[in-house]
Each structure stands twice: as structure tokens, then as C-alpha cells.
Amino acid sequence: QKEVEQNSGPLSVPEGAIASLNCTYSDRVSQSFFWYRQYSGKSPELIMSIYSNGDKEDGRFTAQLNKASQYVSLLIRDSQPSDSATYLCAVNGYTGANSKLTFGKGITLSVRP
Amino acid sequence: GAVVSQHPSRVICKSGTSVKIECRSLDFQATTMFWYRQFPKQSLMLMATSNEGSKATYEQGVEKDKFLINHASLTLSTLTVTSAHPEDSSFYICSARATGGHSDTQYFGPGTRLTVL
Predict the structure, then answer these.
(1) A10 preceded by a cis bond (ω within 30 of 0)
(2) A102 strand-pairing partners
(3) Closest Cα to residue B23, out of B103, B113, B110?
(4) At residue A99, does pLDDT exceed 80?
(5) DSSP assignment, residue A77?
(6) Is there a cis peptide before residue B8, judged by omega within 30 degrees of 0?
(7) Is A45 exposed, middle or buried (0-12, 13-18, 19+ CB in 10 A)?
(8) Chains A–B, number of C-beta pairs less than 8 Å apart
(9) B97 strand-pairing partners
């Protein structure tokens, strides 16, 4: 059974702080890793994808991947109230026609003004 | 970026009726689309994987005769909830996987909120 675990949350940070969201996965052969943001009542929106060990930065977002530790994280710098949402970690075990994502349960982030 | 649309965005129907939901990839071709269901305060649950030109693959516990999926083209998949009942009320979300490049990135549609009375 492939599993993706996220901190139970919720996570609350003050505006301007760094929010750190963590995710671990059980399938060692996982190839692709994604972070989605989901606002209440809306569908998930892709924020970041990462495929190689190390950091990947996009604006205020940085994804970090450590395949040896089976760990992927998302850092949000200069957090804004508009970042308040549920963040879903998703992992793809392999590429190809039959691949599918395994999602974590999500962590709710609240950014306090 | 890749855009996926869903129609309708919201539907209210009587128990026993059937409801069809369309999922379209607007600016890319998707050989594979996925259908998810999400109940309030819960995570996404994958219902089925829809491949263009072939039968859908359903997850364990999902009734294929109740949730009919058709993926007739590279840009359109439909989900029909047959003989809907109140327990089918949920948020149904499709996603489409882009072909080429990192071909495992899924882009989600805006979702369809189904309420069965």
C-alpha cells in the first residue's frame, strides 16, 4: 500500500513568516512529486512539481526533495493571508500510461494578518 | 498553463435521475483523465482512470455500472452518475494528464458539486 503522510495540522503562522509543510512517502521508487493548493470549496491547483533531489524555487515557494529520506517539503516565504488554504502533497510512483497520483490528506495552513 | 474545464459546476437533481458531468482539456491533449470525489473535510478519493479509446479503470469499491465513464476524444471525458441517490452528493473533480514532457503532471478542473435530493 503506497502511503503519503502529511503533518496533521492545522498550521498557523503570522503574516510574513515562513511556512514549512512536510510530506513523507512510503514507495521508495517514487519518481515525481507535487504540491497542490486547495482553497475551501475549490478544486486543487498545482503549485510545484519536483523530480530531482534538492531545492526548486518558484517565487515565494520552494520545494525540497530528499529521495534517500523519502521526504518532500514546501516552504512558503513571506506568507500572506491569501496563502491560507489546504496544501496537498502528491506522489507518483512511476511514469507511464498507468501512473496515478497518491495524495496525502492535506494540511490546512492559516496565515494570521 | 494547462486549463481543464468541467460542466456543470453545480447540479441539483432528484433521487433516481442520472447526471452527466463533462471534463475537457482546453489547450492540450490528454490521453488520460482521472475522476475524483471529495466529501466535506476529506481528502480526494480517486474513483477511476479514464484512457482515451479504452475502458476506464475503476478503483476498488467504485461501482462501474453506477459511475459510467466515457473518454471519446483526447480532450473530453464524461462521468455519468446513474440513478443518483442522496449519498452520491459530493464534489466531483476531474483531472487531465498532459502528454509529452513530464507526462505525469495532472491539472484539475474546477469541480462539479452534485446535490441529490
Answers:
(1) yes
(2) A91
(3) B110
(4) no
(5) S
(6) yes
(7) middle
(8) 52
(9) B32, B106
Angle at B66 between CA B97 and CA B12, to 5 degrees: 85
Amino acid (1-letter code) at residue B30: A
Instruction: Dump pLDDT digits (tens) for B41-56.
Output: 888 999 999 988 888 9
Cβ–Cβ gap A46/B107 under 8 Å: yes
Model confidence at B60: pLDDT above 80 = yes
Q: From chain A, pick out residues whose CB is under 8 angstroms from the CB of B35.
A: none
Burial of B37 (0-12, 13-18, 19+ CB in 10 A): buried
First-to-last C-alpha distance (Å) of chain B: 37
Nearby residues of A69 by Cβ (< 8 Å), 6 or more positions away: A24
Closest CB to A105 among B43, B57, B91? B43
What would the DSSP string read from start to end of chain B? ---EEEE-SEEEE-TT--EEEEEEESSS--SEEEEEEE-TTS--EEEEEEETTS--EEPTT--TTTEEEEEEETTEEEEEE-S--GGG-EEEEEEEEPPSSSTT-EEE---EEEEE-
pLDDT digits (tens, 9 = 90+) for B87-100: 999 999 999 987 66
Cα–Cα distance for residue pair A111/A102, rounded to 1 Å: 27
